[in-house]
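subagent[fold] <- orchestrator: predict structure for attached chain, return tokens only, no commentary.
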Amino acid sequence: MSLSQVIDQVQMSSDSEEDVDEPNDKDETTREKLVKCLGTFDGCPNFNSCFFKESGADLLLPLVNVCENSTPCSPSSEVSRLITGSTISTGALFQRESKLWLEAICRRLGGRRRIANPYYAEVTRDIPQEIFSFIVKLFKCVPVFCEPRCFYVKNRKAEVISFTSFPDVLYFFSLLTGLAKKDVLYYMKKTLSGARLGNKTKVLVSEEKDLALIYKISKGQLKISFHFGEWNSYGEPQHT
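subagent[fold] -> orchestrator:
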């Protein structure tokens, strides 16, 4: 699937998928109220008010939801206090999750071939939207992730991050996993065994064959799609 096909798929999803009630409408309204409230805080002369409002609203939104659905001194209130008062290392979370993606990509390089499109593969993971939102923020804040090598598109149904440069793919996964790019490369290729003993496969990324992260918002599902090539033991390509 090319970049244009991925983008077309996302753009058409608004029409092709049955409309569902948006579960985030209430959260968005509450978040807007929090941003407005935090905007009244007067910081020092060099205070980054925009970052304070946006980040503060993200942190306070779960607390507001807890307070709306629990009463003081109730067991649920104590549980909610424990949940909202706990901290999780974002770095550790993304390092583990994104490494699972790499491991799945590597497995697919040695898996069964599709009949219609034998050198195209997909990896699917169910993840919360907050995780993908963080990935989008990371993607947008890195200057090298820009067109024409990298793209981001979004509609009501889905979001897509697309790469058409292999070095950018290595760098992106290096940022997420904390691995060196040479270690990320280890998961992007595979030496086969069995009936194809000695054959080698490797992820291919180009303008015609992009690697895309497609997040279906209503399903909470991430799909990583990519193309790869295969060479026999003599170095002759088996793909087209």
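orchestrator: received. Logging for downstream: Helices lie at 3-16, 25-38, 49-68, 75-85, 90-109, 129-141, 166-177, 181-187. DSSP finds eight helices and seven strands in the chain.
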